[in-house]
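Hi support team,

I submitted a single chain yesterday and got back a structure, but I'm not sure I'm reading the token output correctly. Could someone confirm the output below corresponds to the sequence I sent? I've pasted both exactly as they appear in my results page.

Thanks,
R.
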Amino acid sequence: MDAHSKKNLHMLFWAGVIIGVALGVTLLVANSCGSPTKSNGKTCDGAPLGTVRYLPCQTAQTGAITQVCTEGAWSTSANTCTAIPPPPSQCPKTVFTDVAPTLSAHCVSCHAGIDTFAGATQGARSAEIPRRIGLPVENNDHMPISPGAPLNPDEKALLLKFYSDGALKDCTGATAAPTFIDLSYVEDSIQADLLKASVTDLPFIIYLTTAHAYDAKSTLPWREAIDKGINSLNSLTNDVFHVEPIDKASTIWRLDVRTIGLNQQDLAAIDAADTINIVSTTKKGLINQALSGKKKPWYPADTFLDIAYRQSQIYYRLLRIPPVFTDFLKSIGVDQVGSFARLDSQFIGSNSSPITIQKPRLIWRLTEARTQQAFYWQTGDINSQPTAAKNPFQNPLLNGTGGVELYQFDASEVIYTLPNGLQGYAIFSGAGQRLDAAPPDVVRDTRSPITPIISLFSCSGCHNQGIIPMVDEVRPHVIANAAQFNANDVELVKKLYLQDNTQIFKRDNKIFGAALAKLSIDPNQPDPQALISDRYLLNWNMLQVASFLLLTVDQGRACINQSAVAKRDMGQLLLSDTAVVPFSVFQADLPQIISDCRLFQDPVGQ
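Hi R., thanks for writing in. Yes, this is the structure output for that exact sequence:
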């Protein structure tokens, strides 16, 4: 029975009590005031023999006592008095007072003090009690042990909910979001959620936190960044989904990595690539490690996205992009050889592009065989030593099209459709080897402070609206100068280079836009992933530094004062609220700051 039904039942019950009491009084008055019953002269307090009266129950009881006048005395014929159940709680959480009777009845005989709030929540009990009562009866760790009475299903459910709701002493503050989020809040929320998960799910669950953004009053699009970032790593499912928060402040986001096709080895690779490397060794943190089976059950959301977003080796791993170009095409269902031979590809050539440092480039589009709603775009870009063979205006065709004058290129950037409609990205050399970053003399990221193009990091920020439309300049050039080209090549150019490619761009961007719309992301706004990840390339003030450490500003200042290294490198933050330091400086000092200030561990003596 859900909480709403229980409340309705309680309301009906109380209504019945009121009606029953009123009816009892009415009947008593009717019997006392009606025509007297004939008797042998003996009465009960003046009432004739056979008179029925109804007496109220004791305080905190409901029902009535029914008595009949017999032989000059009142005789009880029925007693329906029962204890009045407590009125329905208005608290949305299960709190200690709800489970105290169960702990007293089943546990205190072996575990003294467990019927108190401190006893029920001390040490590892918040994790152990739910674990043990959830085990099969025949398991040696199952609680309560024989010969004690076993928990009934309602008692078991109540205990599990108490611990999953955060093991609250009372309802104070259970409905309000906190004004400041510290490490204890993060770990309590995660522990409560882990306790609800099945043993088979636990190895695949991680949490992304935006608590530091909440404390710093950040207005960046964190939810959109998490949703797009996670879904952009999904090579498995055909639709996007929202990553949901588990806490009332919406600052801790639960992810089962199996939903995007990842496994425990992928999580280990992410852990190894984490250069921020925050690990909690508090008692709560160690319990969460034990429950989740991971050294790091949680990451700052921007840290996690930055690992996948900027570290190409991780990105390629998570999207299962092979190191060899031909294997990559097979993995996503693209038949480039067949498409070129059938002449059903679309080519576009341009004389200049900002990212190619104003050098010519050729791009081509293929259809992905796995779905009619998929597309594949590839560029052919050249380095700073152009030759005739590297100029699409002189060599407009590619190997496999049947042309004579073939274009050669030094690197390619690939944009393709993921099964869910978002975009995947990859970079390959002209020889077909996967690259972590494009050679800077081939293309450059003009949007970012870091100029090399790095797969997801650069491509997502630049292509936040989809494929950037480009006007073809090769077709009119070749047709106008047909005498200078092989006659067969001219005919091939007419077939492969379209006069108007406007509809192709609209069609493909409609697919991408539909996926973004499902995530409530506006493509006309800057890319949310880039906005979040770019924070690690910028300067940070005291509020941002302290919040990242889950400290107040005053605690952050005290910490910098306490750490000689931090005070030397970041001391300007102590002088002004507007002073800043490069994030790279903060990151370099972070291990020493954590050690000097004893962060992410319990205070001495606890």
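A quick pointer for reading it: Confidence is low (pLDDT under 50) at residues 1-40. Let us know if anything else looks off.

Best,
Support desk
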